[in-house]
Request: fold
Amino acid sequence: PQNVGILAMEIYFPPTCIQQDILENFDGVSKGKYTIGLGQDCMAFCSEVEDVISMGLTAVTSLLEKYEIDPKKIGRMEVGSETVIDKSKSIKTFLMKIFEDCGNTDIEGVDSTNACYGGTAALFNCVNWVESSSWDGRYGLVVTTDSAVYAEGPARPTGGAGAVAMLIGPDAPIAFESKFRASHMAHAYDFYKPDLASEYPVVDGKLSQTCYLMALDSCYKGYCQKYEKLQGNQFSMADADYFVFHSPYNKLVQKSFARLVFDDVARNASSVDESAKEKLGPFTSLNGDESYQSRDLEKASQQVAKPEYDKKVQPGTLIPKQLGNMYTASLYAAFASLIHNKSSSLDGKRVMMFSYGSGLTATMFSLRLTEGKAPFSLTNIAKVLNIEHKLKTRTELEPEKFVDLMHVMEHRYGGKDYVTSKDTSHLASGTYYLTHVDSKYRRYYAKK
Ligand code: ACO
Reply:
């Protein structure tokens, strides 16, 4: 099979959200800390009737319907999530209900978990399967679904929630350049969830930022080396049209792109212009550690990067800024933003993708885009995603209500024997929701 990649996409996110400027006010932090300091506009979260399973069910059902895919044509389904609902039973098995009902139980794949990286692992598994000798000619399906919630404190505004479903197969408008792919994997305690009784992570915010940037440097270096070895010519940022990043919050994306600009200066890439060399050259004498700590470098590189950021990164930031960190779904929601913003003009473009999961695991890979033929065309994908409408029809909650909800969810996490309010007035028709959890922890869902 040729040009294996993403044929179709759908995104679902809870309509419940809170504006970051209102949260700033409520939390009593300085004005602009979340909106400018973190670069976030709004944050989505699950109400008590939604969770990662219901979001996955909604995204998958909607994808199958809107692209008119026969559920029997799915041969592999992989789920990426770091929201643990059961330590044994995979989220994938919950989603099987959709396929069982249509008489298809012959579907390989389970869940992949490592912080925000599980979605990328799931995606690679599906792409690799289609490219392998065990491929049976059917589609792969990737589901990334997460609800990111943090304890009260500085990390809370970096929560978010959402699910992205992607159909995988050959002759895709979004094709993998599978030979160019570089990873950086190491052991770190930057963000982890050791307390199995709590949904909240333990997080060392500053360390997680540095780990993210170190992994980015390492992946970019590896990507360039692999590209150069195979292509025989140098790779630099000028060879890519767009850059899409895992987005815990937008400020880190701004810093990441600036870091790549600095990396190109440091490796003396031929595409770097004189002005960038002049402004960033002096910093190339810093050692690794110093360079991650230098505020002057951070400022200078962001300034140099700004025009290119607006062109190559900004179109892929809309959804993460509006929803917050969707963990495994974050990178793919960012990519969906790019399709939404640039759909018809993406033909022939190369998109760089950077996936990061704390702990830590990271990969940089690239995609080659072509318009394709409906229903698997970029134009149709943008139409199905229907992002503007989904963002417009949300319900904003007061901060007091949000905090109350967080308390309810803390109490319910890992619990049994409860019935939800079943209030679905805020949900669009077709949305799955949680109705109750019985005395044996079994979860039940219904469709609005
Ligand atoms: N106006 C404008 N900017 C402001 C204001 C203001 N009033 N107040 C603060 N800022 C800026 C700060 O200068 C800082 O910007 P900088 O990074 O460019 O210096 C930024 O806002 C954040 O402020 P800090 O005081 O550094 O933030 P704090 O320590 O309160 O927490 C953090 C931020 C660490 C990101 C926290 O939210 C967190 O731990 N989040 C979860 C971890 C995370 O997402 N890590 C990313 C990778 S791992 C993953 O994906 C989960």
